[in-house]
Specification:
Number of strands: 8
Strand content: 15-25%
Distance between the termini: 37 Å
Helix content: 40-55%
Radius of gyration: 19 Å
Structural class: alpha/beta
Shape: globular
Strand order of the largest sheet: 1-2-4-3-5-6-7-8
Number of helices: 12
CATH superfamily: Alpha/Beta hydrolase fold, catalytic domain
Largest sheet: 8 strands, mixed
CATH topology: Rossmann fold
């Protein structure tokens, strides 16, 4: 188990990203992409274990955690920022962890360089229309008609209580009781800083552009069939459980595990998640290396 290090990197446009690394650079890389409303702090419970077999990179996305805001926030811009960080760190093949807002960022990176993807780890991340339940109606109305009134309806969750709900919403009381209030209190503190709410509103609007790419993502998954591991909190109030089946249809060899947890599953189930991730990385790493034989190599 290696010590995690927090660092800062200045992007070419001047914005600074804060990120955490752990492990040996010679090990396969794992890019951990958090969602709303958190930061790399989401992964505090899995980074130490993952560092036993992987080189972990966990950025705070722009406008989250300790990272600066971008002049114009979008998932494509986030993808470019994280890609620039990966280039700076000389990261080659990597596993990509997709969660919530991290999914559009991760797909931007994966689809730009599909040959560099060792595998996907999917945790309460939506990439199919089946994931949208009735609670998405106001947001979808905003995408189709971005009026001030529709924006107000689509952003009602940008409050302290809405931030807390990301953690405990729809979660059984005994599971919710295991989550420290400090997590959402820190998220809300960061969201209340200058410029941060503008980032959140921009991303809610831009998520509609991500949804418009679902067909292209489906094509990518069908053609590439990356090794994949699913870790899903079944009490997620935002992404319907039918999304799990859509992922499994898209990736028939996906290994799937459903937990008695919520949208931010790692808050309560980091230990079993880390164990499964380590096993997945070790198995698929060696399988990938076995297939990378030079042309003309014989097999017995």
């Amino acid at each position: 188990m290696r010590t995690a290090h927090r660092q800062r990197f200045r992007l070419s446009g001047g914005t600074e990203l804060s990120f955490v690394t752990a492990g040996e650079a010679s090990d396969p890389a794992v890019l951990l992409l958090h969602g709303f409303p958190s930061s790399a702090q989401t992964f505090r419970g899995v980074i130490p274990e993952l560092s036993r077999a992987a080189y972990v990179i966990a950025p705070d996305l722009p406008g989250f955690g300790e990272s600066d805001v971008l002049p114009a926030a979008s998932f494509a811009a986030f993808g470019r920022a994280v890609s620039e960080l990966l280039d700076h760190l000389a990261i080659g093949p990597r596993y990509v962890y997709l969660h919530d807002f991290g999914a559009p960022v991760g797909f931007h990176i994966a689809m730009q360089e599909p040959s560099q993807v060792l595998g996907l780890i999917v945790q309460n991340a939506n990439a199919h229309r089946t994931g949208f339940g009735p609670q998405w109606a106001a947001t979808m109305a905003y995408w189709s008609q971005p009026s001030p009134e529709n924006e107000a309806a689509a952003t009602t969750h940008l409050t302290f209580e809405g931030t807390r709900y990301q953690y405990v919403g729809n979660v059984p009381p005994d599971v919710a009781a295991r989550m420290p209030a400090e997590s959402w209190e820190e998220d809300w503190r960061v969201m209340s800083l200058p410029g941060r709410m503008d980032t959140q509103r921009a991303l809610i609007a831009d998520y509609g552009n991500y949804v418009a790419r679902f067909d292209a993502i489906a094509d990518y998954l069908a053609r590439r069939q990356p090794p994949s591991l699913m870790l899903w909190g079944r009490h997620d109030p935002f992404f319907d459980l039918s999304e799990v089946l859509s992922w499994m249809r898209a990736l028939p060899r996906m290994e799937a595990h459903i937990f008695d947890a919520g949208h931010l599953m790692l808050e309560t189930h980091s230990a079993p998640a880390a164990s499964l991730m380590l096993d997945f990385i070790r198995r698929t790493r060696w399988a990938g290396e076995r297939t990378e034989e030079p042309e003309g190599a014989s097999q017995t």
